[in-house]
Each structure stands twice: as C-alpha cells, then as structure tokens.
Write a structure and sequence with these properties.
This protein has 6 helices and 7 strands, in the order ββαββαβαβαβαα.
Length: about 220
C-alpha cells in the first residue's frame, strides 16, 4: 500500500475530545524520545507532518492525521515515562494514554515502539503487560536500528521475546525499523493494509447480523 496523502486534523487533550470517525486508526506509543513522531513522518514520506525533537517530551497531545482522504487515521501519542515531567504529570499522561488504548473503539492497532539499542526495560514490559491484560490489539516496532549492529538488534529483540513468552502464549507482530534509513516502511504499511481489510470485513459481518431477517419481519404474531 502507498500513502497518497496525509493531513494533520486535530490535537486533543482528552480521549473524549478525539474526532468522531468511523474508520480504523493506528496509534504510536512508547517511551518519550523512542521515535514515534519520526516513524510517522517516515511512513507518510513527510518530514514535517508530526513534530519531532532531540529532547524528550515533545508530543503532549493526542494528534490525529487523516490518511488517504480519510480512509484511515494515524495517531501520534505523547510518550510515557519521561522522568523530568514529575510524578503528577507522568501519571496524568499515563492515564491519558491508557484511557485512549482502552476506550477508543476505532483503534485497529496500537504500535508499541521499543528502542532496539537497549535490553528490555521495565517500563516497556509493564506497558506491554497492560495491553496484554486488557486485550488491546498491539504490534511491536523496534526503532533506531541504524544506531546498532544487526547482532545487537537481534540480541535485544530475542531478550524481549523471551521475556514476553514467560507470560504470554503468543507474540504480537514485530517490526525492526529505522526512520533514518526508511527501514521497515513497506512491512508496516502492508500490515496496516491487511488490518484495514480485516476491519472492513468484520464491519460488513456486523452490519449483516444487525439487519432484521425477512422471516422475522413477515412473521405475524402468534395467537
Ligand atoms: P516524544 O514526542 O518526545 O515522546 O518523542 P518521540 O517518540 O516522538 O521521538 P521523535 O520522533 O521526536 O524522535 C526523538 C529523536 O530520535 C529525534 O532526535 C530523532 O531524530 C531521533 N530518531 C528517531 N528515530 C530515529 C531513527 O530511526 N534513527 C536515528 N538515528 N534517530 C532517530
Ligand atoms: Mg513525538
């Protein structure tokens, strides 16, 4: 799949303020500075769509971007666990992110970004467990692959898989990416394409189920 157009729509401070849409959306979450906004720009081939920064804590709101004339959305979320924010602010961001993940019906997949340079971090494992326990549909995106050798990337990815398999039965889909080198772009866009198709199929099935059948409509009341 190709992204033909991508347009910023709105920034929301609360989930209740997010746009009332009827199409699937794909959100990007992870630690502050992991590369969420950069990945969105890489996927959309637009270096200025989402605001990026060398300093953590850049994205503060839930940002909706309309893709391919509104047939689906990309959502840029603030990062979790940014120490300099202070405990109260950190908790407020966690509530916002968790609220979004739990209540946004349009969420087709939450891409959880993990910096591939590091061994599994407690904060990422806790967030992944939160998603697992609450049935949030996720995929894992390892970022900044250009900053380490393939050997280090393989080592850190297999440690995370091992860690998850101690508690999980199945692993979610995983992608190794570099926004700098445009690595992983096609795989993620193909995945979104398939997820969009599944979304529309289940929508049609639900609509079919909701239709009153001819039989029940024509039935005369039994005496
Ligand atoms: P917050 O909005 O603050 O939570 O951060 P974020 O996760 O959106 O990160 P952002 O995309 O702003 O990137 C943070 C920094 O990492 C920037 O300096 C990016 O240039 C850099 N960066 C992001 N992805 C990559 C990558 O794949 N490779 C390299 N080398 N640098 C990257
Ligand atoms: Mg950001």
């Amino acid at each position: 799949m190709e992204i033909k157009n991508a347009k910023y729509e709105i920034s929301s401070a609360k989930v209740s303020q997010c746009p009332d849409t009827q199409v699937p959306e794909y959100a990007f979450i992870g630690r502050s500075n992991v590369g969420k906004s950069s990945l969105i720009n890489m996927l959309t081939n637009n270096s200025s769509l989402a605001k990026t920064s060398q300093k953590p804590g850049k994205t503060l709101l839930i940002n909706h971007f309309k893709i391919n004339n509104g047939s689906w959305y990309i959502v840029d979320l603030p990062g979790y666990g940014y120490a300099a924010r202070g405990k109260d602010q950190r908790q407020a961001f966690s509530r916002m992110i968790e609220g979004y993940a739990l209540s946004r019906g349009q969420l087709a997949c939450l891409f959880v970004l993990i910096d591939v340079r590091h061994e599994p971090q407690k904060i990422d494992l806790e967030f992944l467990d939160f998603c697992g326990e609450n049935g949030v549909p996720i995929a894992i995106v390892f970022t900044k692959a250009d900053k380490v050798s393939q050997k280090v990337a393989d080592h850190n990815m297999s440690l995370l898989k091992k860690e998850l398999l101690e508690r999980w039965e199945d692993l979610p889909p995983m992608f190794l990416t570099s926004s700098e080198k445009k690595k992983g772009r096609d795989s993620i866009l193909d995945f979104i394409d398939s997820a969009n198709a599944i979304w529309h199929e289940s929508l049609e099935e639900n609509e079919e189920l909701e239709k009153p059948s001819d039989k029940s409509e024509n039935q005369s009341p039994t005496p």
